[in-house]
Amino acid sequence: MSEKLSVAIVGATGMVGQRFISILENHPWFEVTTLAASPRSAGKTYEEALGGRWRMETPMPTRLKDVVVLNAEDVEDVVKDVDFVFSAVNMAKDEIKALEERYAKTETPVVSNNSAHRWTPDVPMIIPEINPEHTAVIEHQKKRLGTKKGFIAVKPNCSIQSYTPALSAWKKFEPYEVIATTYQAISGAGKTFNEWPEMQGNIIPFISGEEEKSEKEPLRIWGHVDDEKGEIVPADDVTITTQCVRVPVLYGHTAAAFVKFKQNPTKEELIKALEEYKGVPQELGLPSAPSQFIQYMQEEDRPQVRLDVNYENGMGVSIGRLREDKLFDWKFIGLSHNTARGAAGGAIECAELLKAQGYITKK
Fold first, then answer.
1. Is 44 part of any domain?
2. One-letter-per-residue 3-state SS of 165-206
3. Whether residues 217 and 133 fall in one domain
4. Model's pTM, two decimal places?
């Protein structure tokens, strides 16, 4: 019997589900053994369910082509042979919240890519390099759910990954006002150019719900666990305002950010803080953790999506064009991979952290 933890991908046919499968192939700790999706895919082999819609750069794993897809709503069937679940379902938020809690109540940990539980007070929303201590709130969540092992943990929105890590590296300089405009790839909407031809040569200056997430989620990440209340209390010392724009790029979210600091850091101090920033994943050597979380690029025309989006297998963040600003103190450009660091990869690193902390174990 494999020593690896057995994993179910719930929402396996979507773009993020496919990214989970692609990244997890040959993972040293986890093995995908169960696939689940909507009723229209259930009962078909994975290859049949996709019907030629495999969107990843690497081939579909041969061993999963003939795996029969289960109905994601048949929770007991999905969890019976797995140790935990990655959730990437595409449903209404209320339906996702209810479904993920059903999974957790079977004593199966759920690591979710979805936004539905990001503001549930006792559900940790984790960027492992930034707030690994937030997993402590899981004990409060398990009391609410009435579980011993089952719980839900989530990763944050993909749009914040291109600027929040830099601001986290600079917390000692006390950033207090931030303006960020994000230029977001179409895969963030689960689309390719074949499926969304109107995005060719086009920009859409609106992404539903994205600006609220981009302004509020960093504050929850910078918050703290209140043991008396049994919840995460968001930070209140930073104000963020954003605009989010869809651009004709397949992978990679770019941010243009402006920051005011209470302290007066130099450019050299800011760059040094970026390059020296690391967290628990680097200390523990988690399998998906980038060895260098944030790179600073000195070239005036970097970072670029084509050249830099796959930095550290898409799990690193690239920062460049750090300059003094006439209205704010400093401005910079950030880039992150939206389906690696920002989606499936970030959730996988979160699961690795939870395993290392003892929250995810064999059943």
1. yes
2. HHHHHCHHHCEEEEEEEEEECHHHHCCCCCCCHHHCCCCECC
3. no
4. 0.97
